[in-house]
Design goal:
about 400 residues; alpha+beta; Butyryl-CoA Dehydrogenase, subunit A, domain 2; Butyryl-CoA Dehydrogenase, subunit A, domain 3; AcylCoA_DH/oxidase_NM_dom_sf; oxidoreductase; acyl-CoA dehydrogenase activity
Length: about 400
């Protein structure tokens, strides 16, 4: 068992760190203040090949695997969680469904420009009544001749304003028992009838574009059906499992950034004749921050390893997501406490970490949903073992 990164991934990590320190960190506070999404930055990210890290070379990707991708995501998140959120949204849940379930024709047409970094993608599952209850989808896609006619609204969609394509969940029919047939469709964002509402005014991750997408009798070619028409929900939930690892990875990035700011301040801030790092109350906070950040990172690496090996990783992805996201919030709080009044000021950058962190416990399945997933997997494993005895 090797807990170290390969030479290739270590070099990629350093490259991503330098990129983030040059092109993201100096502008992160301004982008947050202005709620500005930098399309120019994502062009640079695309040119670096970061948008194609986990995808096959034959479709324009780098074929470096999940761990390499998560390593880059962590480095970007250290500089700006908003940028990191848009990054993992386009890769893990926008592009991944096409890579996982697309036909050769769909991959050539849609996956290649995404993996090559020329375009961005979005994922359209969430609606007014469909979030934690993914099956609550109300958007419809009625087959009429050569087209699916799509009507409905998708909410809280990351990259809504800048994506060239969105993969949506929609009702394409009903079963004999009245249950919904939910399918996945690849929808180009330039089709007539699509309207994107201006971005939300959010508490945190303000440099990430988030908005609503309206579909009004949008004609989507029937060949854009993604995978099995009757398996859309299963497909999308599998996509979310992978997405949870990426949310965990960027959570680790924020947690690490909070720790770095806290320990740097503790070493130089003096009270009672010496640095505050001499006080156990501060030392204990720093120790907890370091331990939990490293534990979260190892959970991300374990889930990434399983995914790359082709093993089932549902439980491990949920482990990583719930622990890393809650660690990020705890670390942001601890950092603010250690910095005190300085941390409360915008220029310190810690209050932004705290505002940003909370979304990590909500997006890609809330902490409560992760615990449900974990418990169900544990109980299922127990039942399987009992059945074999």
């Amino acid at each position: 068992m090797d807990f170290g990164l390969s030479k290739e991934i270590s070099e990629l990590k350093e490259d991503a760190r330098q990129f983030a320190d040059t092109y993201i960190r100096p502008f992160a506070a301004e982008w947050d203040e202005k709620a500005y999404f930098s399309r120019e930055l994502f062009q640079k990210i695309g040119q670096k090949g970061y948008l194609g890290l986990p995808f096959a070379k034959e479709y324009g990707g780098k074929a470096m695997g999940t761990l390499a991708y998560m390593t880059v995501a962590e480095e970007i998140a250290k500089a700006s969680l908003g940028v990191a959120l848009s990054y993992v949204a386009t890769v893990s849940i926008g592009t991944a469904p096409i890579a996982m379930y697309g036909t050769e024709e769909q991959k050539t047409k849609f996956l290649r420009p995404l993996a090559e970094g020329r375009e961005l993608a979005a994922f359209g599952l969430t609606e007014k009544n469909a979030g934690s209850d993914a099956a609550g989808v109300e958007t419809t896609a009625e087959l009429s001749g050569e087209y699916f006619i799509v009507n409905g609204t998708k909410q809280w969609i990351t990259n809504a304003s800048y994506a060239s394509v969105v993969t949506i969940a929609a009702i394409t029919g009903y079963k004999e028992d009245g249950g919904k047939v939910i399918s996945s469709l690849i929808v180009p964002m330039d089709l007539p009838g699509i309207t994107v509402k201006r971005p939300y005014d959010k508490m945190g991750v303000r440099s990430s574009d988030t908005g609503e997408i309206y579909f009004d009798h949008v004609k989507v070619p029937k060949e854009n059906l993604l995978g099995d028409q009757n398996a859309g929900m299963k497909q999308l939930l599998q996509v979310l499992n992978g997405g949870r690892i990426s949310i965990a990875a960027i959570s680790v990035g924020l947690a690490q950034e909070a720790y770095d700011k806290a320990i740097q301040h503790a070493k130089v801030r003096e009270q009672f004749g010496g640095p505050i790092s001499q006080f156990e109350s501060v030392q204990f906070k720093l120790a907890d921050m370091a331990v939990e950040t490293e534990a979260a990172r190892l959970l991300v690496q374990k889930a990434s390893f399983l995914k790359d090996r082709g093993d089932v990783f549902i439980k491990e992805a949920a482990y990583a997501k719930v622990f890393a996201s809650e660690t990020a919030t705890r670390n942001a709080n601890r950092a603010l406490q250690i910095l005190g009044g300085t941390g409360y000021m915008r220029e310190a950058g810690v209050e932004r970490l705290l505002r940003d962190a909370k979304i990590l416990e909500i997006g890609e399945g809330t902490s409560e949903i992760q615990r449900l997933v974990i418990a169900r997997q544990l109980l299922k494993e127990g039942a399987d073992k009992n059945g074999r005895n």
